[in-house]
């Protein structure tokens, strides 16, 4: 098979190729390392590539395959976002303010290795993972393979760029306010924010006051399901991969393009068209699609998301041994977080259950909520370079208004690729599930994927 076809085959298909002996784990790794060496100097997806360690892991995976062991991710290369610990490597958080190398893997990385995945390297993030674009003064800008002048999004932008360009088939991201779903949207990937605590955050438990979760950025729905099966707690019978193979049944789906109160933005024409087309397809697939808006509290963002987001930044910054090396904009965000007292956080968390019950009351008689994936396409690299903390936040938030509220409620949400806009950049729609409803989202996502395949769409860069 052509090396490019292998590179873009996705994790599940690569796993099947490895199991069948069509390619060896060292050969597959070499193919991806060659692509990284050839393409990443312009993309800037990886902060560090672990050539030597990865080669040893690939050899070990091949020995397991040769001994007859079979597992879906055995020998498959993966990328790790640089807010997750990898033993022997620094966790840089997009900054030179970071501490020494870590002595142990984060739990999610340990589980990926146990499943046989080969850790290729660590991917770039904005400083302290604050922004939905991936640029830092320390490590530079990560670029979108669909248009090198644009951001891939963030904060899991390095992982998204790597998967979209075929540098790896699968990657670890984290999502505290859309940081998986935003770059998945703008890079044409399937991105899933799992239920809070589904995938372990250890040793960073409770990150961003409960907003943040770990999850996959993937080429296909099946790839994301395999990631969950390897890393998640409380798996359903048969694992999440079984949900991909089963029809989801007739679902009641609410569609809403309403922006949560307090978010200033306007949904673009291409994004509205994709949203409408998705609703029409879901009806064609036999689902009951109704127009209905969630009961968003007027002070929802101010009352729940913002205090936890800002305090989370402040708490993360407090762990940096060299805070004087942080960017001025990051220090400003941390100062704002310092204004959120322990008492205020206690009150916010005490009110969380009532807030969640109100917002999720829409799921009393619907199974899934459909929203646009983003309000607009990705900004150009450097668009916010000279902006301060508040100015940057106010301008970027309107581009991605549909993600953060579901971090506050904690339930799963996924973005499904949906064609290209007039500039040739990817679009998506978001599917929000009931609490603990990943299996429904995966089953519905796979149904949409079968009706409207997206994995064969590839950016010009890297073909």
Could you describe the 3D structure shown?
Pfam families: Amidase. This protein is an alpha/beta fold. 40% of the residues lie in helices and 14% in strands. The protein has one domain: Amidase signature (AS) domain (Amidase signature (AS) enzymes), CATH 3.90.1300. It has 17 helices and 13 strands. An 11-stranded mixed β-sheet has the order 1-3-2-6-8-7-12-13-11-9-10, sandwiched between helices. A hairpin with a 5-residue loop joins strand 12 (413-420) and strand 13. The longest helix is centred in the first third of the chain and has 19 residues, at 25-43. It is globular, with a radius of gyration of 20 Å. It starts with a helix and ends in a 12-residue tail after the last helix. The mean pLDDT is 97.
Provide the descriptors you would attach to this structure in a database record.
Amidase_dom; 13 strands; eleven-stranded mixed beta sheet; Amidase_CS; alpha/beta; single chain; 40% helix; hydrolase; Amidase signature (AS) enzymes; globular; amidase activity; two-stranded antiparallel ribbon; 463 residues
Brief sketch in words of this structure:
By secondary structure, this protein is an alpha/beta fold. 40% of the residues lie in helices and 14% in strands.
Topology of helices and strands:
Elements: H1 3-7, H2 11-20, H3 25-43, E1 46-49, H4 51-66, E2 77-81, H5 107-114, E3 118-123, E4 135-136, E5 140-141, H6 157-164, E6 170-175, H7 181-187, E7 190-193, E8 213-218, H8 221-231, H9 239-245, E9 252-255, H10 269-284, E10 288-291, H11 300-318, H12 328-338, H13 342-350, H14 352-359, E11 368-372, H15 389-397, H16 404-409, E12 413-420, E13 426-433, H17 438-451
Helix pairs in contact: 3-4, 8-9, 8-17, 9-17, 11-12, 11-13
């Amino acid at each position: 098979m052509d090396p490019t076809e292998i590179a873009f085959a996705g994790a599940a298909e690569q796993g099947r190729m490895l199991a069948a002996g069509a390619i060896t784990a060292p050969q597959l790794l070499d193919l991806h390392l060659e692509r990284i060496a050839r393409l990443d100097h312009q993309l800037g997806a990886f902060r560090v590539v672990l050539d030597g360690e990865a080669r040893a892991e690939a050899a070990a995976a091949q020995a397991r395959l040769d001994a007859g062991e079979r597992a879906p991710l055995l020998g498959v290369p993966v990328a790790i976002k640089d807010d997750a610990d990898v033993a022997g490597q620094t966790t840089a958080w997009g900054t030179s303010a970071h501490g020494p190398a870590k002595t142990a893997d984060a739990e999610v990385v340990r589980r990926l290795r146990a499943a046989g995945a080969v850790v290729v390297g660590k991917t770039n993030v904005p400083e302290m993972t604050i922004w939905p674009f991936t640029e830092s003064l320390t490590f530079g800008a990560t670029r979108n393979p669909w248009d090198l002048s644009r951001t891939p999004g963030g904060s899991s932008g390095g992982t998204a760029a790597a998967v979209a360009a075929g540098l790896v088939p699968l990657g670890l991201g984290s999502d505290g306010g859309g940081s998986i779903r935003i770059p998945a949207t703008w890079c044409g990937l399937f991105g899933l924010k799992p239920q809070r605590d589904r995938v372990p955050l250890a040793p960073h438990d409770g990150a961003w006051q409960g907003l943040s979760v770990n999850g996959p950025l993937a080429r296909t729905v099946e790839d994301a399901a395999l990631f969950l099966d390897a890393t998640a707690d409380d798996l359903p019978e048969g694992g999440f991969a079984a949900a991909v193979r089963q029809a989801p049944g007739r679902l009641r789906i609410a569609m809403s393009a309403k922006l949560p109160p307090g978010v200033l933005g306007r949904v673009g024409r291409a994004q509205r068209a994709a949203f409408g087309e998705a609703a029409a397809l879901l009806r064609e697939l036999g689902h009951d699609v109704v127009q209905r808006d969630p009961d968003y509290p007027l002070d929802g963002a101010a009352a729940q998301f913002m205090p936890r987001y800002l305090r989370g930044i402040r708490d993360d910054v407090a762990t940096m041994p060299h805070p004087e090396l942080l960017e001025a904009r990051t220090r400003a965000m941390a100062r704002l977080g310092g204004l959120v007292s322990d008492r205020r956080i206690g009150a916010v968390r005490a009110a969380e259950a009532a807030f969640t019950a109100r917002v999720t009351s829409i799921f009393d008689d619907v199974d899934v909520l459909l929203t646009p994936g983003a309000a607009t396409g990705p900004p150009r690299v450097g668009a916010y370079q000279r902006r301060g903390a508040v100015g940057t936040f106010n301008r970027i938030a309107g581009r991605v208004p549909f993600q953060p509220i579901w971090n506050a409620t904690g339930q799963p949400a996924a973005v499904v690729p949906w064609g290209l806009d007039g500039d040739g950049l990817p679009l998506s729609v978001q599917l929000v599930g009931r609490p603990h409803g990943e299996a429904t989202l995966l089953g519905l996502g796979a149904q949409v994927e079968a009706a409207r395949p997206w994995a064969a769409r590839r950016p010009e860069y890297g073909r």
